[in-house]
Amino acid sequence: MQSKFEQLYDMYYDSVYRYIFVSVKNKWNAEDIIATVFTKIFQNEDKITEVEASKNWIFRIAHNTIIDFYRKNSKVIPIESFLDRGDEDFGYEDIVIRDEFNGVKKIIDGLPEETKKMLYLRFYGGLKFREIAETVNVAENTVKSTISRAIKKIKKNYEHSLGSDIYG
After folding, report:
1. pTM for the complete prediction?
2. Sign, CA torsion 109/111/114/116
3. Closest Cα to residue 117, out of 150, 91, 75?
4. What average pLDDT does this structure show over 1-22?
């Protein structure tokens, strides 16, 4: 029989890692943060009442740990910005897909931080609107409208960027 901590780890590790990774954009930092998150959970294992009901608590810990990471490392520049990564390992389709993804990612990066957090929790963390609201401490309707407006803005800006690429 697995402990509650082991059950939480097995159930939520992947989705929490994805959320952390898209938030910090660096594999090594994401691995450090996820280790910290699960260390905190292990140290507070006695607070786990039900495994399924702990999802919001876990994402709240991850959210706060990411904030702590940025506070401590406010002058850290991701190593990817220094690396020259050529396209020789990619086929044409891979390059096109990556370029499209980078276009969308650039639009998302221009959104307010709180909006990005909500999008990451929704699409990378797999959280429901209610769970996101509890994690970032806002009303559920605020989360719904923020995500809806963000998606509309992303689509509009992406379609506009495609139009400007095609027409001039």
Report:
1. 0.59
2. negative
3. 150
4. 89
Per the structure, the complete domain to which residue 156 belongs is given by 86-168
In whole angstroms, what is the distance from residue 165 CA to residue 9 CA?
45
Q: Which of residues 165 and 84 earns the better pLDDT score?
A: 165
Beta strands in 3-161 (DSSP E): none
User: In this structure, what token pair is assigned to residue 130?
Assistant: 């209610």
Instruction: Specify whether the CB–CB gap between 11 and 59 falls below 8 A.
Output: no
Position 84 scores a pLDDT of 40
Backbone angles phi, psi at 41, to 5 degrees: -65, -45
Mean pLDDT of 73-94: 47
The helix-helix angle for 92-109 and 140-167 (nearest 10°) equals 130
Q: What is the CATH number of the domain that holds 6?
A: 1.10.1740
User: Which run of H or of E encompasses 75?
Assistant: none
Q: What is the CATH number of the domain that holds 147?
A: 1.10.10.10
Query: So what's the pLDDT on residue 146?
Result: 94
- State the pLDDT at residue 2: 85
